[in-house]
Design brief:
Blueprint: H1 8-15, H2 19-54, E1 65-69, H3 70-93, E2 104-114, H4 116-124, E3 129-134, E4 140-145, E5 154-155, H5 159-178, H6 182-187, H7 192-196, E6 199-203, E7 210-218, H8 221-246, E8 250-261, H9 265-293, E9 305-309, H10 310-343, H11 349-356, E10 360-364, H12 374-379, H13 381-386, H14 392-406, E11 411-417, H15 421-433, E12 438-441, H16 450-457, E13 461-467, H17 473-485, E14 489-496
Parallel strand pairs: 10-14, 11-12, 11-13, 13-14
Antiparallel strand pairs: 1-9, 2-7, 2-8, 3-4, 4-5, 6-7
Helix pairs in contact: 2-10, 3-9, 5-8
Length: 498
Amino acid sequence: MRDKTISMRLLIQTAFQKWRRMLVCGVIFMILISGWKAYRLLPQIKGAGKEESAAPSENTGSADTGVSSAADYKKNSDYFKQQIEHASEYANKSFYTQMDPNAVGMASVDISVSTPELKEEGENDPDSLATVELGSIDETEIKSSNTSSDDSSVVVTTSAEQDANNILNAYKEFILYETDWTAMAEKYNTEPQYLQELVDLSGNHINNIISTEIVIRFPNEQGAGELMDELTAQIQNYTSSVTKTYGEHTLVINNRVTTTVTDTTVTDRANSQLTMLNNLINGNNSFGTATATLGMNSENTDNSQVSVSRSDLLKPIVKYAGAGFVGGVVLYFLLVILSLLASGKVYSASEMNRQYGFSKIAVVPSSNAKKRKGLDRLTHRDASDYYSSRDRKICWQIANENLSELMNGKGTVALIGDVDPGQLEKIAAEMNKETSELQIKTPGDILSSPAALHSLKETDAAVIIASIGSSDYRKTDRILETLHTYEKRILGSIILDQ
């Protein structure tokens, strides 16, 4: 099957033709999510109703109040304390909070990957200077440029470069996620995670080399060097595993530098940790003030109660209902898009003709096309504009006139396509009513029937018939291959909007 260029506008418009189902999916998600939230708040809502009926005269504020256990507030208070404890421990143990930005120990190396195929490609085309810009493990772009051109670059698509880049990505994954820092963590009396976060990867631009730079920062130069020694040793041991998975390659570790530098980025990282800790502390203080205002504190027992507004309990339910509706609509829309892309079905007459370069013999609307209104008319707008006519009978007449012109008024035309054979026969009968000079035939399924192939030989040309929403591009490709084998002229297409 040839590469397919998809019009995103037509794809999205076709997906929106399922707008009724999208709304239904949105309503279902709205009921499920708001129902779940209501179930969680049900005891408080019931409490509000009991309090209203038992002592309505005692309410000094809103008449619609409820009760909430102090256990809920204690749960939130405990959550804040746990988060503060975790953030505080992280800030104390992180090496970034211990570094002097004016004397940061830093070790760096370059690692590069070369394969026999990439080397051969470079020798065959020495004028091609491949460069790789590497950011993160999921944001790798391979680009090429010419030394005599300006700063613009184009994406490299050669297989050798892609294979080498995949190998490098395997090393990067190992460096970022699989390095074993246990032994070094014991030496520095810390935990592996605090050593792992010291490792950074940055992109290089080196001609004809697939490479990246590894940088390790540490409070002192000696420690940075020891960590780099450990990391490079593990990378070299990992080479055999990469070779088994991706094939033969050469890994080169060079440009080793160990030094002391001024680096303000360590201050930025330390400040971000401290800012997070301060935000949690401030949030906990605000929470404590709020609970004190309500006459509660963390020492209250679970039997303590505080009045809260029923409207406050209903607000999150409404919020969750809205989020559920939007989420359901978006989810169904994405599923429709994926379904259209994965199914390989014909979803637009103009899209199919553009895909194969067919001439439009006719596009026949469905029997209910005239009844479409509102959103249905809007989402089918392109299809309506592409019809030969909104009257199906006129469409067949137009098809015959076009075929008569293409065939110089005589000959036998075969209707071939991924359409039900019975429907093809009805189309042929409809078209034969409108012409006496041309003969319209339906050979049958030329992909599986020898009789159909024999009948195809007796025709002069062919017209591709396709039905929107049911015809398949893959089967159409096979039909076209057969027609080319029999050297049959393809006049164009007749597409049915179902």
